[in-house]
């Protein structure tokens, strides 16, 4: 019995020392990682680039089940990325004209045409500030096949989020100390600002997508 009591006491001690993470973040858990990762890879801009990475890191640091976090992040990201790829495939190069600045459009198109699978995997594995959206739209618009896209994107995302979860699980106490030292007192403010910006980004993204779809359907009158 003494061994079990000691183990239980150690678990309670560890739990108390992992509470600097705000409770709203803990409650998000695996479903929250999935939802945020879907949005993160979609045409809707998140207010904080790398939000999925941050959630996986902090939740893995809290001794959550790392493989479930990775599974949620990868599956959500693949779903969001596939929707973005599909939008690029349906809209063609006109989607690139709407969402990609002109100075980046030609180099991006050349890179994707020359290195189709590699371009998708590279964009998926590199962290912010590398933008993901232009590469996914270009992959759909410029002919990267569905099979190639899903496999390359999935493998790259699994490597990225697997590494982040490992870092969180391995160096979790240090991560939590940094959070407690610099950000714990701002937890509620961060929550409401993030949620507000997220809702605004979703509304703007839906509005822009519908606006672009209506604009694309308007026939150009002959002069």
UniProtKB/TrEMBL annotation:
UniProt key word Membrane: yes
Domain VTT: 56-169
GO cellular component entries: plasma membrane
Domain of life per record: Bacteria
Keyword Membrane in record: yes
Transmembrane regions: 24-44, 64-85, 189-207
Segment forming the signal sequence: none
Keywords: Membrane, Transmembrane, Transmembrane helix
Pfam families: VTT_dom (PF09335)
Name listed for the protein in its UniProt record: VTT domain-containing protein
């Amino acid at each position: 019995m003494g061994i079990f009591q000691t183990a239980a006491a150690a678990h309670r001690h560890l739990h108390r020392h992992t509470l600097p993470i705000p409770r709203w973040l803990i409650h998000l858990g695996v479903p929250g990682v999935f939802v945020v990762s879907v949005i993160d890879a979609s045409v809707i801009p998140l207010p904080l680039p790398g939000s999925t990475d941050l959630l996986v890191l902090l939740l893995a640091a809290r001794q959550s089940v790392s493989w479930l976090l990775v599974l949620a992040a990868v599956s959500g990201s693949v779903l969001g990325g596939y929707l973005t790829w599909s939008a690029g495939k349906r809209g063609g190069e006109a989607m690139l004209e709407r969402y990609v600045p002109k100075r980046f459009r030609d180099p991006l198109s050349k890179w994707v045409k020359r290195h189709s699978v590699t371009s998708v995997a590279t964009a998926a594995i590199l962290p912010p500030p590398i933008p993901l959206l232009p590469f996914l739209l270009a992959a759909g618009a410029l002919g990267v096949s569905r099979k190639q896209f899903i496999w390359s994107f999935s493998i790259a995302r699994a490597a990225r989020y697997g590494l982040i979860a490992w870092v969180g699980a391995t160096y979790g106490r240090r991560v939590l100390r940094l959070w407690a030292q610099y950000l714990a007192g701002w937890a509620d403010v961060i929550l409401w600002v993030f949620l507000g910006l997220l809702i605004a980004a979703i509304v703007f993204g839906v509005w822009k997508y519908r606006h672009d779809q209506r604009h694309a359907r308007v026939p150009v009158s002959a002069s």
